[in-house]
Amino acid sequence: MGCKYSKVSAAHRSIERRLNYDGGDDDDDDAIILNLTSEENHIPIHVADPLAFNNSFVQQRQQAIDNRSYQSAIESCQPTSLQQLTDIIQAFSKGKSIVDSHWIIFYWIVRNIQYDTGAYISGKCGDQSPEVVFRKRKGVSVGYANLYKYLCDRLEISCQIISGYAKGYEFENRIDAPTETDHTWNAVEIDQHWYLIESTWGAGYLNEQSIFQHEPNLYYFFPRPNEMICHHLPDDNKWQLLQTPIKMAQYLEMPHFHPLYFDLNIELVSPRNQFHLDLVPGKSYALVFLKVPSDVHLMADLKLNDQVIDGGSYITFDKRQQISRCYFAPIKTGKYRIYLYGKRGNSTAGEYRSILDFVLDVKQMPKNSISFPKVWKNFSEFDLEVISPRNTYLIELDNGDKHSEILIKSPTNVELRGYLQNERKQEVMGGQQVYYDRQKNIWRCKFAPDRHGLFEALIMAKKNTDPDTYTSVVAFKIEAKFIPSPPISYPFTWQLFHDLDLKIEAPRNRSSAIWSGNASYTEILIQAPDVIQLSCNIKYDNVEIENGSLAQFNNEKKLWQLLFAPERTGRHELNVYARKINDKESSLNAVVKFDLDVRKLQRPMKFPMTYNKFQIEKCQIYTPIDGILKQGSIVPIHCAIPGAKSVNLTVDSQLLNNEGYRGSILKRQIQVGSKDVVIYAKYGKNSSFDSLIKYTVR
């Protein structure tokens, strides 16, 4: 009796993309495939009776399994004696096919008989007669087989008990070939064809804690002999039901196949008949090659002393060869276990289960050891490629390094996004910046830890035609040491920020704007090409603050000055928008977003209202910066208004023509009336004036 299944932990990595590590290339691996799949390495396994699993039999088997009335009847019957069970099965089987009768027997046993773990581990199996197994409702394999044959005999159905060897619980720890049989199952005859029945493994499995998991597995109801031989070797060769029986040495060296391997129609290309793997000559990894149906997805683990090796495995799908290449890289000498898992279907739902196990015995480490990042299925689907860093899953930050950068190539229709989290799985706010470098045709993924410790840099992707649903594709670990204080952080940037070649001059390396306790507003400075227009707003609780922002161009510094005035304390959102000035059809789009945490606010204020022409012509207000003027006060007006032919003001609806405008500078004093003060300018050949700035009066 052994473990058929082992459930996949959260550390398992789903990885299906060639990252070209260790200096290898596909041609190298193709040569390995040709060598490892040569006929001399292949043990042919063919059933002795190819007509046994004919279409009619296969259909009968599946119909019996799918028959809900059979299941309900078996699940509801509660016999109090073996004789009563026999009578119930005889009555229920009357008039039914032999296949149905076998299903009724098999299903009752696997539903009602528990495996006797204590007897198995102690080696004291005791009485395993059908009567005792029924009464205790538990037994070891010989007890299951005895009960199965007893019920078949009562129905006058031909059945044999088979003794042999099974790759069950702790089989992988065996050093030498077994000298005594350790397992029992059945063979039955139907219409002059022999079939196998394995009710012990059909009832469940022992987990890693040596606890029996009662989980009926219908695969063992007539398993095919050419599959069964991978984990069950009869003592009598005739019960292999194969054309050419295999020997004990061949059986022991075969990989450890699980039932799901066959259910998913997976084919092991290489190594075909080898349980113990070696590193590829001249490489830092071992290789397993599989042919997998398109709707089947794989995961892998490399373990040493039952501990998953981080970065120890990945799987890549070779579209040209239609082969999944599974790479396993050890970190030191030792005896490793290789686990492969699979599931069918494209959804994230469903559990990966064991399909195949190997042993990797590393007695001497290669000079250059490698490791792999964690990669998900869509990494391959989106045709992504990691350019840097190579040959590692762990990025080390020390000696004053403030951030790490991961470079990824992608098709033009794929977008990436990043996410940095600490050891407690908490997001590091402002810890990432991901954008596409169109000059280099590469994605730049920057990650900045906020303290010493271990972090995960997760990269997600989606096709740009899809809804805004990013899925995980690749992740690296970052080990941060001696991070400078304060640590850097990134504001959230849209791709347009980088496409327009914008650069943040202040605040640098911060995701939050700087706030002074005695201030009324904060400032962001951005460098932009001449053809770019910027705008901005400030939001509190996702509501825009009216006249709470001012976007203007500082003509002396040649920078855009973006000012933000909160109305209250608390966390605010500062948004910057941009577009090309000569693109009349385009609207202003978001390019960068900062946070602003206001803990103290002495004097809230409002900015003057500015119109679109103010930003297009790159105007600037020196004074007054406060948008609310006091009625009757004397106020100096000082603005930069480049390129205007004429500048006018209205005060109390009276027009002040071009007074104080010289050399692109408007500078004069006004006495504030009771109505809005508006500044206009006329450009080029236009006969009309455009509104630029409006102050309100209180």
From TrEMBL:
It comes from the Eukaryota. GO terms for cellular component: cytoplasm. SUPFAM superfamilies: Cysteine proteinases (SSF54001). Residues 133-201 form the Transglutaminase-like domain. InterPro entries: CAP/Cytokinesis_protein, Ig-like_KY, Papain-like_cys_pep_sf, Transglutaminase-like. This is Transglutaminase-like domain-containing protein. It comes from Rotaria magnacalcarata.
